[in-house]
Structure formats: structure tokens, C-alpha cells
Amino acid sequence: MTADPQHWVVLPAAGAGRRFGGPIPKQYLPLRGRRVIEHSLAVFVQHPLIAGCVIALSPEDEWWQDTAYADHPAVKRVAGGAERSDSVAHALAALAGNAADDDWVLVHDAARPCLTTEDLDRLLAALVDEPVGALLAVPMHDTVKAAEDAFGARVERTLPRQQLWRAYTPQAFRLGQLREALAHCRAQGIAITDDASAIEQLGLRPLLVEGRVDNIKITRPEDLSLAEFFLDH
Ligand code: C5P
């Protein structure tokens, strides 16, 4: 008999947050008396189904050591990489000693401090008997325009929104399969901005689990005020 798969968490936190600006990376900004990253980790550290967390940090990181989780026994730190996907790959390599290839790994952005236990539970429930993996996501309610180019302010066309979802995190995949998917994208030179995209490149179709819209990623300065409001309500 094979044991039930365990659930691990990977937090890529090695980004410099250039779009946000400022001297402190966005995951370390103060939010409701704690750092953003402490909120992002808390929900996992307190959850009975989470076996452990690996956090990928920049080699220049000078803030992690002052957080509440710096010496937590369930949180291991590794060096991140040049891209988010490299940081995730490093964390997966560090998990390999303790985790099995068919264990679930939940990858969550360090800059998403408003994840609720209810959303996490919904994702974990969706993984039972799930062959591929799943991600929290929110259906698109706005009309979506494609611009002429990355810098263009003119509309090139309107995308049909009926099938569009915003991909949030956590995103959960089998350790072995996610490692294979990230290695495949790296070898092929395919740039990805989330883990589901890597799994899709293997020809697989992750499950979309509808989550709360307030599980935002801190990207712009005004997102901090929004996160503060969401944490209070
Ligand atoms: O830049 P973006 O907001 O998409 O980053 C998402 C997450 O990935 C953040 O938590 C960031 O710290 C992390 N990241 C990383 N390594 C990088 C770039 C980003 O761990 N090289």
C-alpha cells in the first residue's frame, strides 16, 4: 500500500520587485504590523495538512533573518534564481530529500498576503483524486483588450472573456512532474510566469479552482492599502 501524498509549500521570494520600486522588496514591506511575507506564510505554517515549507530567497536578502519565521523548524530557506521559475526549481531540489515524487507541492507567491484558510482548504480538497494538479483562479469579469505591443497604448483587439480566468496562487502539482515541467521549459527556452504554464507545456490541463478575488499579488504601491483593507475584513 502506498502512503497518501503529503503536501509541501514552496514560496518563491527572491524577486527584487522592480515594478513596485523602493529600496525594500515588496515581500518585506510592512503590512498590519508584520511583513507581507509573514502574512503569506502564516496560513501554511498553521495548517495541519502542510508538512513543511521551502522559501527561495535572493543571495542579497538582508530582511528574512528579521522575520518571525527565520528560525521556524517547518520553514527551510534556499537560494533563489534569476527567474521565478529558477527559484521554484531550486526549492523543489531542496525538497527532494524529504518529499516523494508524487507528493503535492503548493507554490505560492511571497507577495500574496491575503490567502484565506478557506481558499487553501478548497484547493486541497480539489487535489483528492486529481490526476494533474490545480490552481486558485478567478473568472475574468472585465472586458480584456490586447494592446498593439508591450508598450502600446492602442487596442489591437478585444479578447472574448467567457473562457478567461486570472491565475492566482497557490498552484499545486506533483513534485516530480513540476520538476520535469520546469526543466522542459528551461531546456526549450520557454519563458513562463506561473507553474501551471510549465505543466501545460507537457500537454496537461490543470484544474481551475475558483478562489476569492482578494487573494491579490502586491504589485503596485496602492495594492498595499487594498491588502490592508482585505486583511481587516
Ligand atoms: O515579479 P512577480 O510579482 O511575478 O514575482 C512573483 C513571486 O516570485 C514573488 O514572490 C517574487 O519574490 C518571486 N520571484 C523569485 N525569484 C525571481 C523573481 C521573482 O522568487 N527571480
From TrEMBL:
Entries under PROSITE patterns matching the protein: ISPD
Alphabetical list of Pfam families matching this protein: IspD (PF01128)
Site positions for Positions MEP for the nucleophilic attack: R161, K217
EC identifiers of the protein: 2.7.7.60
Site, Transition state stabilizer: residue positions: R19, K26
Keyword Nucleotidyltransferase: yes
Highest taxon listed in the record's lineage: Bacteria
Pathway the protein acts in: Isoprenoid biosynthesis; isopentenyl diphosphate biosynthesis via DXP pathway; isopentenyl diphosphate from 1-deoxy-D-xylulose 5-phosphate: step 2/6
GO biological process: isopentenyl diphosphate biosynthetic process, methylerythritol 4-phosphate pathway
Keywords attached to this entry: Isoprene biosynthesis, Nucleotidyltransferase, Transferase
Reactions that this protein is recorded to catalyse: 2-C-methyl-D-erythritol 4-phosphate + CTP + H(+) = 4-CDP-2-C-methyl-D-erythritol + diphosphate
CDD domains, alphabetized: CDP-ME_synthetase
Statement: the UniProt record of this protein carries the keyword Transferase: yes
TM helices/strands, residue ranges: none
Function comment: Catalyzes the formation of 4-diphosphocytidyl-2-C-methyl-D-erythritol from CTP and 2-C-methyl-D-erythritol 4-phosphate (MEP).
Family according to the record: Belongs to the IspD/TarI cytidylyltransferase family. IspD subfamily.
Protein name as it appears in the record: 2-C-methyl-D-erythritol 4-phosphate cytidylyltransferase
Organism: Lamprobacter modestohalophilus
